[in-house]
Amino acid sequence: MSIEDSAENDCMRDATAPYSAWIGLGQGASAAAPTAGWSWHTGPLESQGFAAFAIDEPDDADGIEDHVEDCGLIDPSGEWRDEACGGENYFICEW
Ligand SMILES: [Ca+2]
Ligand SMILES: [Ca+2]
Ligand SMILES: [Ca+2]
Questions:
Q1: pLDDT band at 38 (very low <50, low <70, confident <90, very high)
Q2: What average pLDDT does range 13-40 have in this prediction?
Q3: Is 52 exposed, middle or buried (0-12, 13-18, 19+ CB in 10 A)?
Q4: What is the pLDDT of residue 45?
């Protein structure tokens, strides 16, 4: 999926809170910084003009990009966080 504006983000938050959910946001394997190389399945994050990462995210756990956290989820407050892709969470699909 992709989340294109704050209204859609609020809708996804309301659908999943009090849980977090994967939102189909992933980081490229060649990214060299925690904030670099994020994209939706449908295209680059930057081209969509909307992002809702929490102030301290994405941080790849410790601020150093070594690909520990390369998948994005929406938390119960509607903020996005990068977390380890193997974590068990609900997920949202769009079609
Ligand atoms: Ca790291
Ligand atoms: Ca990462
Ligand atoms: Ca993180």
A1: very high
A2: 96
A3: buried
A4: 80
Q: What distance in Å separates the CA atoms of residue 6 and residue 73, rounded to the nearest whole number?
A: 15
Position 42 scores a pLDDT of 79
Q: Residue 59 Cα, ligand 1 centroid: separation in angstroms?
A: 7
Residue 72 CA to ligand 3 centre (angstroms): 8
Q: Ligand 2 centroid vs 45 CA: distance in angstroms?
A: 15
Q: How far apart are CA 36 and CA 43, in angstroms?
A: 14
Using the mean position of ligand 2's atoms as its centre, give its distance from the Cα of residue 2 in Å.
Answer: 19
* Residues lying with their CB under 5 A of ligand 1, a single-atom ion: 60-62, 64, 66, 68
Mean pLDDT of 37-58: 87
Sketch the domain layout of the chain as residue ranges: 6-91
6-91 folds as Mannose-Binding Protein A; Chain A (3.10.100)
